[in-house]
Structure formats: C-alpha cells, structure tokens
Specification:
2 domains; 346 residues; 6-stranded parallel β-sheet; Rossmann fold; alpha/beta
Length: 346
C-alpha cells in the first residue's frame, strides 16, 4: 500500500544528538506506517517550501524570526499535519539564556499553537513547556530519543572490586552547556579521590578544556568518539555534569553499557537515573566529594546491572512510540505482516 509521506525538516546536521535521533524514522516500526525522508532548510529562511507530505516534522527550535517560516509552512501545506520536536529549550535553558521570560514565552506560545502536535524528549521538559507555552497537555507527547549504538549491551560489566583507580568517563560535544569544565575543576580540587578522568569529544570548548587539564596527571582526552562502545569499555562509571540537558542520550548509552551514571539535577537527566546511578550537584565540590566518598563496589555493581536492565528493549519502545503517534495522526494502520516485519529482530 502507499504509505503517508513524512518529511523531517532540519537546519543543522552538525547537532550530533538531533542528527542521530533522526535514525528512528528509518526504523522498521516507523517505516511500517510512513515513508520518511529528511530535507535541510536554511536557518534564516522566511518562506517555507511546499512539500509533498502528509506529515511534516520540525527539528529546530522556534524563535521570533522563525514565526514567519512557521506561518508560511502552515499556509503552504494546509493539509499536512505538523509535528514540532523540541530538542533544545528547557527550564534550565530558559533560566540561563532568557532576559525577558514573558517575551520568550509569548513567542513559544505563538509558535507552538501553529503546529498540531508537540513532541518533548523528556517529562521534565514537557512539564515546563506546557506551562511556558500555555499548551494543553493533550497536545504534548513525550518520546525519549534513541540512537542505536551497536555493542553497548554486549560489553562486560565493570569489575568494581579491582585494584587501581576508578575510571570516570565523560563524553559529548565540547560546549559550555555540557559542564566538562566543572568536572575537570572538581577533579583537580580533589573531589573525586582514587579516580581517573577520561574525556571524549570535540567542539568549541576544546582548547579551553585542554588548558584546564594541562599538566594534570590522571586526566586523559580520548578525542572524537566514533565508537561509543569502544569508549565505554574503558570506563567504569559515566559522569554527565551538564548545565542543561533536554534528555541526555549519553545517560541512556551509559546505562545500556552497564555503566553507573552520575548526572546533574537539571531538566531530563534525573528521570533517567532510578537505581542506575546518582543525581549529583556538579556545581558543588563538597556535594561531589560526598557522593564519591559514599560509593561502595557492591552499590556500583547494582547500579550497573539496573542500568542495563532498564534499557533492555529501549529501541523497540521508542520506535513503537513514534509509530503509534504517526499512525494516530495519519489515521493509518500497518498490516499484520508489516507489524511482524517491524518487530522481527534485525
């Protein structure tokens, strides 16, 4: 049968987490209900394209300039259902970036009332966005992002009883929002005794981070991470000291690899922890020191097992969430054979 056509709109393919998350639209469950493709739009575009699509999914955040683009998108594609996926804005982002909250929230409200559905990437983000944009909770769907990194579930769990230092891994985009500078400063201040720090990634903050760690034995940079499983194989635990984080795919990847996670108390990060790690105030050396001083090998081993247990089948869950949403707004249902194919192991 001819499936409804879906077009993803993206304006920056360099955003690693967002680009990786688009892989969900090529998954078996989603391909069973829509024919998906992705096109680039200019960040400063005012006029939207006419698209041969029943569903349009927007993957960039709204701003005042983009209101014209959104209005044009609606006018030029009157029959399409429009979904906005909010990857960026959060309560912590608003607190650190917005000088006039009322003006920012007015823009959000205008933008998001032009779309049919809003997808948030965490419950923390969804709660804030419903309040900030005055959106009825029924128009918001929460679907955690998922990037399929092979080999994570096959890694051996760390041996926390081994002799030698505990290796803390941290990786991602080298951006101030990720908080790697605070992690380095806390380590240098002695807040994590008996540990080594392994940092992977690249980005605008690279020179600054290298300068912060210059001459410090025990802090190593691994460069750009192209093999997540290979990096995590060299880590015992993973720290995510972000200043803001709509979801935090690193936390999911680390849990799937059976690495306990230590995350900042911001946005979507705490809801990933459960019994798989700890929420730590990375702005306080004292709080970090207290968290690490209380760690025992048996507790870390339980966290590792719980992280892996709670991520089992995550990919299928995320695929099914998108498939259900898209089937509901297009009023289509996959055939039984399509469902069987979608759920079959690759």
């Amino acid at each position: 049968m001819n499936l409804p056509r879906l077009v993803n709109l993206l304006d920056d393919f360099a955003l690693g987490g967002v680009s990786r998350a688009l892989g969900i639209f090529d998954s078996p469950a989603v391909r069973a209900v829509v024919d998906a493709s992705t096109i680039a739009v200019k960040a400063d575009a005012l006029v939207a394209p006419r698209l041969n699509a029943e569903v349009i999914v927007i993957h960039f955040p709204p701003n005042w300039r983009r209101l014209a683009f959104l209005a044009s998108l609606r006018l030029r594609n009157p029959k399409a259902k429009i979904i906005h996926v909010e990857h960026s804005y959060t309560r912590a982002w608003e607190a650190s970036h917005v000088p006039s909250r009322s003006r920012f929230r007015a823009m959000l409200s205008m933008a998001l009332h032009m779309v049919d559905k809003v997808v948030c990437v965490s419950h923390g983000q969804a709660e804030w966005l419903a309040e900030a944009a005055h959106i009825d909770a029924g128009r918001i769907e929460v679907i955690y992002p998922y990037s399929n990194n092979p080999g994570l579930g096959d890694l051996a769990l760390p041996n926390f009883d081994k002799a030698g230092p505990l290796r803390i891994g941290a990786y991602g985009r080298f951006h101030k929002a990720k908080g790697f500078d605070r992690l380095i400063e806390a380590w240098k201040a002695g807040a994590m005794p008996g540990t080594e720090l392994l940092i992977g990634g690249f980005g605008a903050e690279e020179d600054r981070l290298h300068a912060l760690a210059a001459g410090v034995s025990g802090i190593t940079f691994a460069g750009q991470i192209n093999n997540v499983a290979g990096f995590l194989a060299n880590c015992d635990i993973v720290a995510i000291p972000s200043r803001r984080e709509a979801f935090g795919q690193v936390a999911t990847e680390a849990r799937e690899a059976g690495r306990p996670i230590f995350v900042s108390p911001v946005d979507g990060l705490p809801e990933q922890v459960g019994e798989a790690g700890l929420v730590v105030d990375f702005t306080s050396d004292e709080a970090i020191a207290a968290a690490f001083a209380a760690l025992k090998p048996s507790a870390l081993a339980r966290m590792a097992c719980e992280g892996r247990r709670t991520t089992a089948g995550d990919g299928v869950v995320r695929q099914s969430g998108w498939a259900r949403l898209l089937a509901s707004i297009t009023s289509t249902s996959p055939t039984p054979s399509q469902v069987a194919l979608a759920m079959a192991p690759n």
